[in-house]
Amino acid sequence: LVPGSGLRIRNLRVGYGPVQALRGVSLEAPSGSVVAVLGANGAGKSTLLRAVSGTLRFHRGAVTAGEIEYAGRPLSRLSAAAVVARGVTQVPEGRRVFTRMTVAENLRAGALGGRGRKETAAARRRVLELFPVLAERAGQRAGLLSGGEQQMLAIGRALMARPSVLLLDEPTLGLAPLMAARIADTVREINAQGTTVLLVEQNAAMALSLASHAYVLEVGEVVMSGPADELAASDEVRRRYLGEI
Ligand code: ATP
């Protein structure tokens, strides 16, 4: 891991008008890592990803203080498109695929404009190797896919931009356990191929099994952080997020 080469968030404050959603959050995802963000509904997890991806403004939110850096350069003032061009891509919560478009069209929409055909073809090959079902369904409307397949498509579409950092918002939400486990395996595989992953998950057990480090958010603040195995062993985390004890 090269110091300073990953994603770095310092003292981030975000508001939606008068609502303070993040109150000074600091977090690091070193290059090549999987870092998990846990927390109850409304803790600010999605807000954190939106701030990084530059999509906050689509939700009427704004960064009011702090810094977001990737590879030593600031991201905080960039448009969503510019953030993607820098190598950071978000898979939004709720697997928002274009339901009336085909699977192939959805993937094409994720490719960066201005990239060569060869690069796009290579990105597509990688996505279809990760998710062979998307090749089988290439000509089908995305709205006809199952929930799990739509999640695969949402991840695949994000990978078409060949990101160095993937921001994943609740990728297993609402999926049956078997499908959730498959998504988890793919996240592991994507990371093994060299992509840094910042993972927001309600399934704390799964997130902690994937991540090297984790952060727990409560009402806009980091209340706990550390190596994932240490958090998984902590009584507090086991009681509050793993449903044990
Ligand atoms: P969830 O899992 O429910 O999405 P979360 O941890 O991702 O929860 P956020 O969605 O980031 O939490 O929300 C953090 C806080 O910001 C909450 O108090 C929420 O009500 C508020 N919030 C989120 N989006 C908006 C918005 N567009 N306008 C106003 N307030 C918002």
From TrEMBL:
Q: Which InterPro entries match?
A: AAA+_ATPase (IPR003593), ABC_transporter-like_ATP-bd (IPR003439), ABC_transporter-like_CS (IPR017871), BCAA_Transport_ATP-bd_LivF (IPR052156), P-loop_NTPase (IPR027417)
- Highest taxon above the source species: Bacteria
Answer yes or no on keyword Glycoprotein.
no
GO biological process terms, alphabetically, are: L-amino acid transport
Q: Is Transport included in the keywords of this UniProt record?
A: yes
An example Gene Ontology molecular-function term? ATP hydrolysis activity
- What does the sequence similarity comment in the record state about its family? Belongs to the ABC transporter superfamily.
Q: Where is the ABC transporter domain?
A: 7-244
What UniProt keywords are attached to this protein's entry? Amino-acid transport, ATP-binding, Nucleotide-binding, Transport
> What is the protein named?
Amino acid/amide ABC transporter ATP-binding protein 2, HAAT family
Q: Name one Pfam family in it.
A: ABC_tran
Q: Report the SMART domains cross-referenced here.
A: AAA
Q: What is the lineage of its organism?
A: Bacteria, Bacillati, Actinomycetota, Actinomycetes, Streptosporangiales
